[in-house]
Amino acid sequence: MDYCATLDNPKIRDILACYDPDSDKAGCILLLLMLYFNEPKESLMFEVDPCATAVDVNTAELPSTPCLIIQGDMMKPSGWLLSIEGHVMMGPHPFFLHGVVAFFSSYYVFNLEYPAAGSSTLESIQRCFLGINPERGSKTKKRTTMNPHVAPF
User: Is residue 64 part of a domain?
Assistant: First the structure.
């Protein structure tokens, strides 16, 4: 968040201006990463009504890759659900950070590639926050050692 505050990007400044002590830090960081890498939020996350249940979620709009469904506002979520292959598999659960962990873990548990539209964000989480830096292989289709967008980060 401190690094993003130094950037000259109006969208990033708007997100940081909306952040307050009651906001969810993990949600804010996810939004900032996606803005930093110019990736659409919808490639990884889907926002629904705060009271929505798995039955209420329109599965026609969900991607086939894992998707974190956020109940309410991204900065102050009331809960989360997880969908895989267009079906809600988990939730609703109240702790957003647990949802981020379940979402990220699903790519490893089911041995899935990251979606192209969100690969830089997910790879930066993998490498910078979790310290998973494989010398060979990748969860993306890129053939370089490290995603060039993530390398300067």
Answer: yes
